[in-house]
Amino acid sequence: MDLHNLIVMANRIGDFFAAQPDRDEALAGIADHIRKFWTPRMRSELLAAVGTAAGAAMHEIVAAALVKHRALLEPAAAKA
Asked: For the chain, what are the domain ranges?
C-alpha cells in the first residue's frame, strides 16, 4: 500500500484518539487500533516511516504512539 495513504489513515485514527483527555490512553488506543485492523505489512511500512522525511506528514500523536508501542505493533517475523 502507498505510504502516503497509510499516513493519511493513521492520522485519521490519531485525530479520533487525540480528543481523549488522557494522552497515555490515546497513545494506547491508536496502537491497539492499528494492531487489530492493519496487516503486518501495513504496520511495518508505517513503523519504518517514523522519524524519516517520508513520514514527515505523520501527526505527532501517531508517531508518539508508534514509538511507545513499537513492540506491540511489529509483526512477529520482524521481532526475531
From this structure: 3-75
Q: In angstroms, how far is CA 76 from the centroid of its own chain? A: 16
Q: Are 13 and 48 in contact (CB under 8 A)?
A: no
Note the pTM of the prediction, 2 decimals: 0.91
Nearest C-alpha neighbor of 31 from the set 8, 9, 54, 14: 14
Confidence tier at 76 by pLDDT (50, 70, 90): confident
- Which one, of 20, 39, 30, lies nearest residue 70 by Cα? 30
**Residue predicted with more confidence, 73 or 80:** 73
Q: Which of 21, 1, 17, 3 is nearest to 64 (CA)?
A: 17
Cell numbers standing for residue 9 = 489513515
